[in-house]
Amino acid sequence: MNATQFLAALHELFDVSAGTIQKYSVLQDIPGWSSMTFIGLIAMLDDDFGVRIAPGTILRCHTVEDLMEEVAAEQKPAKMAA
Amino acid sequence: MQATLKAIEYYLPPRVLDNPQLCVIAPNWSPQKIQNKTGIEERRISEEEELSSDLAVKAVTKLFESGACKPEDIDYLMLCTQTPDYFLPTTACLLQNRLGLRTSCGALDFNLGCSGFIYGLGMAKGLIETGQATNVLVVTAETYTKFITPTDMSVRALFGDASAATLITAQDSHSPEAPAIGPFVYGTDGKGAKNLIVQTGGMRKPVAGFASGGGDEDADEHVLVPPTLYMNGPEIFLFTLDAVPELVAGICNRTGITFDDVDLFVFHQANEYMLRHLRDKIEIPPERFFVSMSHCGNTVSSTIPIALKEAHKAGRLKTGDRVMLVGFGVGYSWGATMLRWSM
């Protein structure tokens, strides 16, 4: 996973114009954040990045970068196993 | 004898809550966004004095009027509801009287949500194939919207009220084909109870006298807290990602079938976005995956019979077709079965 790919997926999910979401953006301040986009985020992480991250863990991520670190940490064991 | 599904009718209360009306409550949403995220255009809302029993009477009356059966034919009635009229008596007993069923008819309520139709079919099959009953009415009826705070979009946008009446009847079983209903796979995980719950109104937290401010019994101000639906949608979604693919694999293993043997897949109609994700994850061909919820929303235990009825009306089901039914949700509770379509 790289940051560009992750940010592009978030832009598509939240349907916002390019550049709206940055690594330092506060996750729950992303325009359109709601219970439904939260579900979409879990689906996106599962589909595009192959990880399932508990909702509580996502809510503890302050910024997009925090979430990227969680995703990377989840992906690591799978890569090592492969 | 073997149990077979003979007829389905459903009823939606007339009052409509559509997406433009929802956007008045939640101005940061747009009708199109709600449609895109849920697959729902409108939901039906029961009136204050319109209870699950009233919705159930309407659905069963439609079934009788269709000519599928008469009140005196019914020898067992089961009602799946989480919004009964009373703690006691059993709402199904009230229905026996209102519907003019025989007094020799068995009647019971069972408390399940989104998996309830599958469990109802399982119990009906058991009653028929052990010779305890011949014509079983499986009725699902919910008025979840009475539990919903008007401004809570996470549930307001999803749930609608409805009832469905399904006739399961005994027929001679000399056919070498697969059973008309079954086999079944079930599952339960009460650890998920907290993620879809109405906290008050039961004996643990009765409504009257429930204190605000964290339940401080010495608080000066006691307010009546109406029973309110709480849903942690993301946790429920995560649960379905684990449970549903396993459930589908379980029913395939139990029956020895592959996806090629299934003519139509009908899942609990929770939320179209979630359904599409599950469909793609399980790799079900889209043309054999039926969704019908835009006109009524998530009607809990009635979603599967409503979708079956709509699939039949749309010509998507013909006699002999094999249908996989999958229910999952509140509890957590889940179940799946196969039907050989016989309507």
What does this structure look like?
The complex is a heterodimer of chains A (82) and B (343). Chain A has 82 residues and is mainly alpha-helical. In chain A, 62% of the residues lie in helices and 0% in strands. Chain A has four helices and no strands. Chain A has helices at residues 3-14, 35-49, 55-60, 64-81. The longest helix of chain A is centred in the last third of the chain and has 18 residues, at 64-81. The mean pLDDT of chain A is 88. Chain B is built from ten helices and 14 strands. In chain B, α1 crosses α2 (31-38) and α8 (233-255) packs across α9. The longest helix of chain B is centred in the last third of the chain and has 23 residues, at 233-255. The model of chain B is unreliable at 213-221 (pLDDT under 50).
Task: Summarize the model shown.
Helix content of chain A is 62%, strand content 0%. Chain A is built from 4 helices and no strands.
Uncertain residue ranges of chain A: none
So, CATH architecture of chain A? Orthogonal Bundle
Radius of gyration of chain A: 12 Å
| Total separate domains of chain A | 1
- The poorly predicted ranges of chain B are 213-221
CATH homology superfamily of the largest domain in chain B: Thiolase/Chalcone synthase
CATH class of the largest domain in chain B: Alpha Beta
Count of folded domains of chain B: 2
Strand content of chain B: 15-25%
